[in-house]
Amino acid sequence: MAMRQVFEEAAQEYDAWFDAHRAVYDSEITALKRFRTAAGHGLEIGVGTGRFAVPLGITLGLEPAAAMAAIARRRGLRVVRGLAEALPFRDDSFDLAVMVTVLCFLDEPFRALTEATRVLKPGGRLLIGMIDQDSPLGRAYEAHKEESKFYRQARFYPASRVLGWLKDLPYAPVTTCQTIFGDLPGLTSPQPARPGHGAGAFVVIAARKAA
Questions:
Q1: Which of 24, 95, 130, 193 is least surrounded by CB atoms within 10 angstroms?
Q2: Residue 129 DSSP SS3
Q3: At what angle do helices 11-20 and 66-74 cross, to 10 degrees?
Q4: Helix 109-119 / helix 159-167 crossing angle, nearest 10 deg
């Protein structure tokens, strides 16, 4: 089943995952908020059902799957249909662009990062939330991804690979934090975000576009 079709047919199941794994979800939100600035016009690329945009105070999202976009709209978001690799927005339009567990589903992740950079204003910030393949839990995700209808076709990347891509784009400085340490079944309360990457399964990369 093609990836887009999975998200069309199982959008409700995808959305329910966040309620069933509340401690994981809250940990990820905490890590993202570590770098979230209050001011400015924001966009979430690959907004899904709006689970991240809403708590981050973002009101506009881009999403290719109609069923996912419909749920996001019910959460009060304005959603534009489109692809991360060809954003339907003008240059220098946003103060903040957010991508959460998006790069692993894209055929051309570097092109998507280039597009995100294009639509950011000089001095704007890019936030990337991702499963770090180099973390212990990230390696377990990779080993068992065939068991998940959502991650079966995903390609997880090490945080170091994404940081390498950002070196080829006009960003400075670039900082990271990480969360979710240990096995998911044993996670019953939110975990704090710690600086760096390599140990936590979920990594947030924050990069500021050169002015």
A1: 95
A2: strand
A3: 50
A4: 50
State the Cα torsion 126-201-3-82 to the nearest 10°: -10
The residue whose two tokens read 């999403």 is 63
Do 29 and 55 touch, CB atoms closer than 8 A?
A: yes
Average pLDDT over residues 129-138: 90
Helices marked H in the chain: 3-9, 11-20, 22-33, 66-74, 109-119, 136-143, 159-167
| Cis geometry, peptide bond prior to residue 109 (ω within 30 degrees of 0) | no
Checking if the pLDDT of 1 tops 60, the result is no
| pLDDT, tens digit (0-9, with 9 covering 90-100), for 28-61 | 999 999 998 766 899 999 999 999 999 999 999 9
- For residues 69 and 98, what is the distance between their CA atoms, to the nearest angstrom? 16
The two beta strands, 194-195 and 94-100, are unpaired
Q: Which domains does the chain have, with CATH numbers?
A: 3-209 (3.40.50.150)
- Candidates 110, 100, 55, 106; CA nearest to 202 is 100
25 pLDDT tier (thresholds 50, 70, 90): very high
The pLDDT, as a whole number, for residue 2 is 60
Give the strand pairing for 120-131 and 202-209.
Answer: antiparallel
Q: What is the mean pLDDT of the chain?
A: 92
pLDDT classification of 209: cutoffs 50, 70, 90: very high
The SS3 of residue 142 is: helix
Distance in angstroms (rounded) separating the CA atoms of residues 194 and 27: 11
DSSP 8-state symbol, 149: T
